Model the fold of this input.
Amino acid sequence: MAKTNAGALSLRVTALAYLAFMLLIPLAAVLQDGFRNGAAGFLKSLLNPAAWHAFKLTLWTAFLMAAINAVMGTLTAYVLVRYSFPGRSLINSFIDLPFAIPTLVTGVMLVILYGPQQALGSWLKTHWGWQIIFAPTGIVLALLFVTFPLVVRTVEPLLMEIDPDQEEASRTLGASSWTTFWRILFPAILPGVLTGTLLSFSRALGEFGSVVVVAGNIPFKSQTAAVYVWGEIESQNQQGASAMSVMLVALSFFVILLVDWFEKRRRSVHAR
Amino acid sequence: MPVEIKPIKPMIQRNPWVRPCLLSLVLGYIAFLIFVPIGTLFFSAFSEGAVSFFKVLCRWDVLHAFGLTFFLSLLAVFVNAVFGLIIAWVLVRHDFPGKKFLNALVDLPFAVSPVVAGYMLILLFGRTGWCHAWLQAAGIKIVFSLPGMAIATAFVSLPFVIREVMPVLQEIGLEEEQAAHTLGANGWQTFWRVTFPSIRWGLLYGITLTFARAMGEFGALFVVSGAVSGETETATLFVFRAMDERMYQEAYAVSVVLAAVSFFVLLAMEALKKRVREEV
Amino acid sequence: MKRLFRLFFIYGCILTVIALPACAQKKENEITLGAYTAPREAYRAIIPLFQKYWQGKTGKNIKVKQSYLGSGAQARAIAGGFEADLAALSLESDMEVIRKAGLIKNDWRKNGSLGMVTRSIVIFAVRAGNPKNIHDWQDLAKPGIEILTPNPKSSGGAMWNILALYGAAQRGKVPGYEAGNQGARNLLKDVFKNVTVLDKGARESIINFEKGIGDALITYESEVLVGKKSGQNYEAVMPSSTILIETPLAVVDGYAGPHGALAPAEAFRDFLWSREAQKIFADFGLRPVNPEAAAEVSSQFPIPADLWTVEDLGGWGKVVPGIFGPGGIFTAVMEGIEKEK
Done:
């Protein structure tokens, strides 16, 4: 190693201390609080009807969003990589905007656009019966915005690696676009699609800033898990807040670990 | 490996309608999802004229909120850059039991909802928290005060520098460092003269991401800050309060500024991303 | 591009310098008020008057910082470490939370009108012209009506709303619902089936109403009056039977003492009971407790046919666990509504 033993040790200690203080200890605090009445107390808080419903709502909106994102993200990546059209590089830069923009601003934008008194919102409500704000639709929309870059950016590099000659050969041999896509492109980009979709799912589980403005916070109707935690904090139901927090963190973290493991495997297969 | 995305020439299409269909679907989706909301925001913010827009930005509480946001973000960037470099170094160049666990742990802030992050701090530092007794003895206030907000901001933006520097460190490998060491350079010289120039762009990219995330933080700050206007109110907290107080022009104006700043940050991100790809 | 970034950075540094003074710890000549959401405009108008008064009395300038959250949320924040010198909340039971945390040692009920600083009543806000013909509680239970009311977990106003609804039915004043607990429960269920958004505070609720959500809003009379004052064109509808809202105010000596701010905090508290301040409360839709001020503005504030207080329902001690607790009536009703879906 390039450093002396003392130097290396002090670096390690610093790194460990920072991570312990910033991550481990807060995590331990919420774990301890969630299980303060044992596993039975933990489960009881989670299975409380409002909590359970919030959890289910979070899961299905995240799942729906991830599904839409998988499709649209892949298509977007394809269009960006394979086609040329005016404004391409501008749009390419804007793809990452949801990463940079504060989530609260996202929520505000959606409310301005789709609030029932705004032109678009009231038109949608009267003509189609759709309510976007204060309904699960709004939640899915907010989640779609916030996680948009995730699938696009994980699929893009994989698409770029594919030899376009393969595609061209397949077309020349008479295969339809669909067959070309399914047989040649899809297997190659599938890992990227999976990674991006899982990451956007994980991100959506804890999303707060955009959802709190856009959803209705009605228990059993439009209250997501993160907003539920917030409500429990404000009414000092510590056990409830901690239990749901632990659940959310565990699930998100599990998905992220899955993605990490998957990526590592893919890279080692790739390297061979 | 191409440096930037170069469009490939359109191929012989069996079905000539595929391209226009796909293009309009994707572009339409992006327009609907991203551009229309942003456009509406800008339009609404300027609906009462540019003069009133700028007048809002000169309000004392707005300036203070921006200043606080910037201060907290800079602080988070500084702390997470310094410690992030150390952690990335340790995770890549060292070997020790528990390394895999720590490596996974770094992703924790991505898995934690901002509200939960703020709540963790209340559990630790609030009146009934673990550390309360010591803090009270020392006269330090953490929650409902700036230190708590700083910690919350640092928490949510922690992984970015680490995650951007680690792959670069791995790619550049040990040879140059070892060579420098053989030639008599000490640890610090090696790092500064040999390693740092190579990881510079990755580090900067990570810093940009950290800054963007820190600037946009809301949920954790809402829980931890007490929302005292003029003291512990950041730009995002201000927008939230303004929406509550029928100060719509103010809310939109500050949102526009936040969006504009994030746009600049985005440009920096894109430029740096290119550099990183070039180096590696 | 680089120059732009540099400019931006410099601007940011200037802003940071402005922000830095905030980093300094608590100074003298400063008190902090933690209040619920509804009366913020009133306090903002009263505070400059108090500053003038204090300047005249002691020759010093005083800064009054404020935080406005839902009453329950504010109480938990103060009990959890938010160092407010004064608490102005919506419910006596929320004040009790702070007292039980050991932060209020003085007998806060001794001052003013048994510790209460303003009054109000629970009414409805409806769209201009009252298109859905909402005149009383039973109209809220009609199918297809969309109602807004805040979430009782964080909002004091929400609790008042639910109590008003419950009490009106229990007293037999709501046609179609039998007097007594069962009738009250049925009304609660029927109305809450129609609730579309449960927001964090009374203020957030009325903002949602203004955004176009819902046909009717259950809220403080003061919120409707303040909204109308700022140009909104909804109508106020007073039900025939409703609860008298009394909002408490207390000096949090657990924080004010160590801050050295007891004198200004107590002075501010007493100032809020003065005729001057109470008149301003009335300007912002809140019914004064000061008898002279109340007499002056009595024409502004009609008296409902049946006006009663929380004592008529058994007092806070009975109502908080019995209705809002984990085994309480409201909780059961919400779960019942869910099961029926």
